[in-house]
Amino acid sequence: MTTLHTFGCSITQGFALPDVVRPAVNAQGQPLSDQEVHDQGIHWTSIHIYEPSLYAWPNVLANQLSIPVENHARRGACFQQIARQCVLAAPTIQPTDTVIVMWTYLSRLSLQWPARTTVPFCSMIDTNWGWRTVTKGFNKFFGLSPSDNSTDHADQLIYDHIHQTAQLALDPMGVYNRFYNNLILLAATDGLLRATGARVIHLSVEPEAYDLQLESARSELAPSLRDPYIIPDPNTWYTLPVDHDLCTVIHDPSIPPAENDMHPSVTHHSNFARRVYTKYFQES
């Protein structure tokens, strides 16, 4: 049977949609304030369930196509983590299947440990428009709770390491290097997925083309680092059709976001699934 496989970050997972939120309430059933949640030591992962939502666009699209869906997306995923999702799932993908990868923000940076993954920084900072980037500063360990053996001192050492490492990676040369390697990773992942024989569609959560973002990062390099290209010019090998247009539907500012969050709402996901269906399935 044909299966729809989807990969991506929180937008594809369906973060903050009703069925993956377990509200923190008091004895009378009233929602706790942020301060009360903090005072009672309730971890945010107890509120936000770590699984795909049935209201998310992959499930809505699969219902329109009358096929089962495997939504491999996870909140906070960067390019590296999305590629990892694809690598792990590739053995289960059949030639009759359809694969949709919704790549995340090119500027997203994650740091990896054997038992931890975090996405604390983006290199493009915009505190006024949360859709485009993650606000500068330390963000929560996505989907992770503190170790039973953790101490304030040990946690502070981790935070300091993240801060220092991320800042080193955010200078112009580090940004270009990361953007360039992200596009190589995208191209390599595409080859892996197409080797399964499945139909492969690439979408993006942001409207600005990745190659244009790479060129912008190149323009910020010191003149002696810009030209000529010693490494392969991305214009010669980055030719993948990544759809940067449809994301405007799932980020439609005229529709209120998910309750108590800036992520897309049920309506956003429904509209997006319908547009994907029309563009890639109905018209074909």
Write the layout of secondary structure elements.
Elements: E1 4-7, H1 10-13, H2 34-39, H3 57-65, E2 69-71, H4 79-89, E3 98-103, E4 108-113, E5 116-122, H5 152-169, H6 172-194, E6 199-204, H7 210-219, H8 223-226, H9 234-237, E7 242-243, H10 247-250, H11 266-282
Parallel strand pairs: 1-2, 1-3, 3-6, 6-7
Antiparallel strand pairs: 4-5
What can you see in these coordinates?
The chain is α/β, with parallel strands linked by helices. The chain is built from 11 helices and 7 strands. It has helices spanning 10-13, 34-39, 57-65, 79-89, 152-169, 172-194, 210-219, 223-226, 234-237, 247-250, 266-282; strands at 4-7, 69-71, 98-103, 108-113, 116-122, 199-204, 242-243. The chain has a 5-stranded parallel beta sheet, sandwiched between helices. A two-stranded antiparallel sheet has the order 4-5. Residues 123-146 have low confidence and may be disordered.
What does this entry show, briefly?
It is built from eleven helices and seven strands. With 284 residues, the protein is of the alpha/beta class. The strands form two sheets. The chain has a five-stranded parallel sheet, with helices on both faces.
Which terms would index this structure?
single chain; 284 residues; alpha/beta; Rossmann fold; 5-stranded parallel beta sheet; two-stranded antiparallel ribbon; globular
